[in-house]
Every structure is written in C-alpha cells, then in structure tokens.
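hey so u asked for the seq, here:
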Amino acid sequence: MPDDLPLLYWDACVFLSYINGSPERLQHIDALFEKSGKDFQIVTSTISIVEVAWGKSEQDGRPLGVDAEVKIDRLWMASDSPIKLIEFHRMIAERARDLMRSAKDNGLTGLKPMDAIHLATAKVHGAFEFHTYDGLDRYVPDIGFKIGPPIANAPKLPLS
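ran it, structure tokens below
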C-alpha cells in the first residue's frame, strides 16, 4: 500500500455502524473499504479502539459475541485491515484542546474531547475528508476538509 495516498479520516461512529450492520450505511462503508489502499487510505486515531469496544447488542445488555469480537478486532489488525491507525500524541492533544476552546469561544458548546481528538488527528495528518455521522462540521467551519457521512460514488447494493 503506497504511503502517498490521500488520507480519508473515519470517526469511530462509522466503525460502529459497520459493526452494527446498519443496512443504509453498510453499502457505502463496504464500498469505501474496498477502495482503501488503492484510491485513498482510510485512517483513524488509536482512540477508536477504545470507542469501538462493542456493538449495539452489547450496549443493550447482551454479552459480547465471539463473532462481534472477531469483527471488531479485525478492524485494527495491520495485515488484515483497510484501516491505518494514527497514534495519539501531545501535538494532537493540544490541537484538540484548542478546537474545544475555539468552539466554546464561538458560542458552540458540546464538542466532546474524543470528537475533538478525532478532528485534530485528521487536521494534523492532512486528511482530505472526515467521515462521521455526528454532525461535527458545525464546530469547525474553517477546518480545511469536508466533514460528513461516508458516501461512496458507487455504493455496494445490499443483497435482498
């Protein structure tokens, strides 16, 4: 996989939609997974490993199933994943803090630390686009990249 591919950043909520098998979202997620490492490189912060600890069934009180655990762990395995992880470090922490302060100064409350870390990671590493379902674009009007849900030009259609 070439190191000079443009970076497409995914927020943890995109991985949760994948794990939960959200049909209206999966067609786009799967299509983008297939292009990762060819047309662009999907990246995320290592904090996503913590945020994607389980899926919806576990959040609803059921135990983590073996299939779900394997699917989650496979996301982060370097040899078997279309995802590259970016390590969290001090510069990202300081940029995330600055984003939170800037949002508050602009009258926007509620930018959570984990969301600020994701945005700062994407900014520091030069992502061309940031995929999320969380509506984070309102916090950073001058971030320098597009923020929105993952949309594939030619999504994989779900099997009926």
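The chain has seven helices and five strands. The radius of gyration is 16 Å.
lmk if thats what u needed
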